[in-house]
Specification:
By secondary structure, this protein is an alpha/beta fold. The chain contains eight helices and nine strands. The longest helix is centred in the C-terminal third of the chain and has 15 residues.
Amino acid sequence: MSRGKSFIISGPSGVGKSTILTELMKKRDLYFSVSATTRDPRPGEENGVHYHFIDRETFQKWIENGEFLEHAEFVGNCYGTPKRYVDEAMEQGRDVILDIEVQGAEQVIALRPETVRIYIAPPNWEELERRLTSRGTDSPEKIRQRLERAQEEYKTAHAYDYFVINDSIENAVRELDSIMTAEHCKPAERYAQLAD
């Protein structure tokens, strides 16, 4: 059995990452990396499913022990990607999805340059604004901030290994599925399989 690979999925808020990944996980046996956080659980959230809920002292110990692939503090709470769950899934031969922002992706690549990076973009900025507005969850000011941030992060997308445009969920899922298949067809991995 070959070892799984890890795939970073980045893209702006509202681009449809959650929908795409939900559909992709119907086609493939993937491990969706669950982040650790110091924030309190919200109603309906389960430990180990939505987040690994830990206290700040534990979070700090994990940082000191090098147990995160990436971590950051946001609005007074800490968030991070624990290595151990990612490694366990990969040892079982499962591919791992890391749904993280550009800054977190840079931290992961510094530790594990073999991680495959996929950037998901909207077909255009007007469509992204339409999607953000139609969700009805953000004020016009918040939407403007999200669009500005998206345009800033977009400038770093050229550093990613793949670029998927979400013009339709079906196309985006098909492209992600193809990328994962191609990554497992590289000569080094195939030679290793034949040697087993």
